[in-house]
Amino acid sequence: MCTLKRFLLASSIVLGFASAASAQSDWHGFYVGGNIGGAIHRSTADTMSSFSQSGYLAASSVNALTIAGRQRLNNDSSTGGVEVGFNKQSENTVFGIETDYVALRMNVSRSNSVDYTCPLCSGTNFTVSQLLKTRWLYTLRPRFGIATGRMLYFVTGGLALTKLNYQETFSDNFASANGNGEFNKTKAGWTAGLGASFRLNPERWSVKGEYLYTAFGRSTITSSNLSAFIPPVAFPANVFNHSVALHSHILRGGVDYRW
After folding, report:
1. Cis bond leading into 232, ω under 30°?
2. Helices (runs of H) and strands (runs of E) counted in the chain
3. If the chain, 259 residues long, is cut into consecutive pieces of 10 residues, what is the mean pLDDT of each piece?
4. Which of 21, 8, 43 is nearest to 215 (CA)?
5. Which is nearest to 103 in space by CA: 124, 134, 126, 64?
C-alpha cells in the first residue's frame, strides 16, 4: 500500500509539472529587452570606367580596371542592442510588431594592384582600393507566431536601415595618377527571419533565439576627378562608376520583459 501511495504521489507531481509546462502562456502586451550575437557580412564592390580618346587610361587598362575593381568585402562582427515590441494574441496565434536598434560594426577594405599592359607603361602598375563601413542597424518588423505551452515560434520581416560609408581610390606609379569616389549615406533595405521565445518563471521574463537576414541592394555613384602627372593634369573624360552591395546574416539571443 505504501508503495502504491508513493507511486501515485510521484505520478501526481510529474503530471503537475507537465501540466504547468504545457499550460498556454499569455504573450499579449508590450515588451522591452536586449539582444547580443554575431553577424556575417557579405559585400561586393565594383569600380570600372570606359575608354576615351581624351582620357588617361588606355583601352587595355580599362579592361584590366574592370577585373581589378571587382572586390569581395567580407567581414564578421559582433552585434547587440535594444528592442521594443507589442503582441496581440488570439488563442495560440500571436501577431505583433517589433523595432530594434543594434550595433553593427563592419569595417573591411581590399586592394588590387595590376600591371599596365600598354607599351609605354612597361614595369608600372595601378592600384584600386575599396572600403566599406557600417556602424548600426535599425529594423521595424511585423511578426507572426504560434504559441504552444511556454514556447512562441515566430517569423518576422520588414524594414531595415543602416549607414553605409564607401570609399574608393585609384592610384598608379606611372604618372602619379590619383582619383577617388565615396559616399556616406543612410540606406534602406529589408530584413526577414525566424526564431523562438521561451517564457521563464516569473512569466514577465522570456528568452529568445533569432536569425535575421538583411539586404540593402546595390548603391552606385560616379566620379570624374582623375588626375595625373606633376603638376597635376585633370582627365574628366575618364568617368569612374562605383557600386557596392551588402547583405548580412545575423544570429542572436535576447532577454525581454513584458507588461
Report:
1. no
2. 2, 11
3. 46 42 79 97 96 90 93 95 97 96 95 87 92 97 96 98 97 95 96 97 91 97 96 95 97 96
4. 43
5. 134
pLDDT value, residue 7:
40
Alpha helices for the chain (secondary structure H) = 2-22, 59-68
User: CA angle 96-102-25, nearest 5°?
Assistant: 30
Q: What is the pLDDT of residue 252?
A: 98
Read off the DSSP letter of residue 120. G
pLDDT at 18: 41
pLDDT at 203: 79
DSSP 226: -
Cβ 251 vs Cβ 211: under 8 Å: yes
* Residue 119 three-state SS: helix
For residue 119, the model assigns a pLDDT of: 75
Question: What are the two backbone dihedrals, phi and then psi, of residue 209, each rounded to the nearest 5 degrees?
Answer: -125, 145
Nearest 5°: the CA angle 252, 253, 255 is 145
Q: How many CA atoms lie within 13 A of 222 on its CB side?
A: 7
